[in-house]
Each structure stands twice: as C-alpha cells, then as structure tokens.
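Q: Given only this backbone (179 positions), what sequence would you predict?
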C-alpha cells in the first residue's frame, strides 16, 4: 500500500495488515551493527569461528533483525507514531544469514484508547526471509496519535448534530405572515 499521509489511531481497524518492502542483509550490516553496539561475538563476525558453530556460518545479531523489522515496518503502514511502548512475546525462530532477503508482515491485533490524543496499538509483526520462513516474530506496542483529539471530535459531532437539527427546523412548512 502506498500511503501519501500517515494513518491516525482512529483509521486503524482490528485485522488490518500490511507487507513491507524487502532488503538484503549484508556482511557490512552485521559489521556495522557489531561496531555500533560493541557486540563483536565471533558467531556474527568471524566466518572461521562461525563455521564450527551451530549454524555453520555467520548469522546476523538477533537485535539487528528486530532493527530491520522496526525500520521496514515504519512505512508499512505509515502511522502517526508518538511512542514505542514495548516488545512482547518475541521469538527468534530461525537464523538470519548474510545474503538473506527479509521483509515484514504486520497485523493490527488490538486497539485501546489512551487518553484524548492517542491510542495504544498492538501490532503482530513477523520478519520473513526469502523462503517465506518466519525468522522472528512478536508483538510491538506503540502509541499512535489521533488525527483530532477526542474532545475536538466530539465537539465536531455535536456541531454536525446541531446543524442537522437546525436544517430540519428551517425546512418545516411556515405559516403565512399577516393573515
């Protein structure tokens, strides 16, 4: 879906789903993540060491996978995100290798009002590789802004109702004046 404007909380519905664009995981991605975070575990950065490990070759950091997922899903869908609240029930189900092409599948699981200006959204997100295998999945919880605060929405509804009542009154037949 190519959205021109970000969605507000009130535009989301349970079961809405999106699929992101994809990206290829590179050796440079893994090295840069290791440099940035300080996690230089040879399981990720040393092909000789990793060859004797459980996966037979280097794998991407699990948190790098979550980072790819967060980035790819930030535009599928584009929403008025105000805050990232939590990650729940996260699972690392398969390794992510150099050369894998990953994309994200997102579904709205739950919507809860959160004050006048926001709503809490529970997103089921899956990082999926080129073979259609889910390599990571879980629930992201975010606060999403409403396009108009509830009090403003209610006053607009009230104005529309008053306007409709006035139109009904104005459309009633009138008695001739001065008879």
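A: Predicted residues:
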């Amino acid at each position: 879906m190519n959205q021109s404007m970000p969605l507000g909380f009130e535009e989301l519905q349970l079961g809405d789903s999106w699929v992101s664009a994809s990206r290829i995981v590179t050796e440079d991605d893994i090295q840069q993540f290791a440099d940035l975070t300080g996690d230089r575990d040879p399981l990720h950065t040393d092909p000789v060491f990793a060859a004797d490990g459980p996966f037979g070759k280097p794998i991407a950091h699990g948190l790098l996978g979550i980072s790819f997922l967060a980035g790819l899903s930030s535009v599928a869908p584009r929403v008025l995100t105000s805050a990232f609240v939590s990650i729940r029930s996260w699972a690392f189900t398969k390794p992510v290798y150099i050369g894998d092409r990953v994309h994200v599948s997102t579904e709205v699981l739950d919507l809860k009002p959160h004050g006048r200006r926001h709503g809490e959204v529970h997103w089921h997100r899956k990082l999926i590789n080129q073979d259609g295998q889910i390599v990571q999945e879980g629930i992201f919880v975010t606060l999403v802004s409403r396009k108009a605060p509830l009090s403003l929405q209610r006053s607009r509804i009230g104005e529309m109702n008053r306007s409709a009542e006035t139109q009904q009154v104005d459309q009633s037949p009138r008695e001739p004046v001065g008879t």
